[in-house]
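Q: Protein A?
A:
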Amino acid sequence: MCRLLGVVSDRPVTVADAVGEVVLKDFVALTKIHGDGWGVARVEAAGGSPAVVVSAGSALDDPEFIAAAAEVSAPASIVHLRWATAGLAVRLENSHPFVADGLAMAHNGSIRPVEPLEAMLTPEVAAKLRGTTDSERYFALIRQHRRTAANLREAVRDAVSELRAVYPEASLNALVLGEGQLVAVHAHARTTLPDDDIEQLSAVDLPAEHVEDYFALRLARPDDHTVVIGSTGFGDLPWQPLPPESVTAVALTDLSVTSVPLVAD
């Protein structure tokens, strides 16, 4: 399980400046649970390919994280704090965001068992896998669908719809960055937290949202120049919920926001 934060601006901006230092501090405080790795992906230009910096350690007091979040400006960034799924190793190649083929992706959820997902991948796509996570395989499926989809949003939608048919109870929440847009997957309608996870969340001083609405994703426009998408449990921003079971794209060129359901009516 993880925490997600995405920023899109009509001008280069640091994550800290986009959301405010207090909000970023709230986000980093979630490392009380989500301390199994962090990553930041960003693009240098609206149509550019993402670059990524990742770590298998905690973001708290990490100079590399501070530099990535507060010192580097970009028109779009995604930030990920990892809470490793039981049985998956805490190591660099398992840290999100993953980056390949001009795209970056971070996931909040668990897709188990992983074998049906692996069977969806072509040998060519599977050969590029580096780590052991279900999340990286989910990203591979998105890239596989991108070969035939009209655009990135539709590729994400096609991949999520294929997964939803096999994994009706999985959280498929994700942020995907590339091709001039930030795409958010808000798909967790039947997902529940395991009892062990609820116990861990309840044992530390974190907002109640972490238990009550852990998987929700929200969108905010803190000013006329910025769109922010984030998980629950942090940040005093004018949040609005994303549509349930949907894929939402934010264009880097004009900050326009479009949402489509996972399955067409």
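Q: Protein B?
A:
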Amino acid sequence: MQTLMKKVIKTLNKSKRKITDHTEKIEKNKIKITEFKEKNRGKRGRISKNDKNRQKFSSRIKKLEKENRQLLAIIRKNKAKIKELQKYVDKISSMFKSKTKETAMKRFQKLKDKIKELPEEIATFIKKLSKDINSTLNHIKNDDIPNTNNKLEGYYKITLPRYLKRTFRTEEGLTRKLRLNRIRWTERNVLKIK
């Protein structure tokens, strides 16, 4: 879920920023429209061709109203995108919280069948997850396997010193550490070098 949410949060934040920026723009445009209407107060009816000042204000008002409509359409698209992403994130989290492995696999298969319809972030996550879905869902059947890796993270974060944290992060680092331990053991016990 953490690897999924890193990508999803970026897109959510982008669309939320767009929504706030566009709503602020709409409010500014509304203020300008009311200012232009105030300047034409008291004058009603059709604008004559000779009245250039009123024509200028009415064209500006129309332009701002058109811009507001376009901004509202963008806001609606972004809100729909947020809602859709949230829906799929909830589906994936319910898959991991399932009580049996069969229901989790059914939920995963439903998402995998609709992979072309899914948003880009969710689709890439499902493709990566499909490679090792069985090992990912092992925590459902076996009670000894924790569903989160908080204890493991806590061990590497709190108990180990800083240089060991970096060593054990990768498989290569771990094999290097084990190789060096074997070399030191042979030096101490077999070759008896101090």
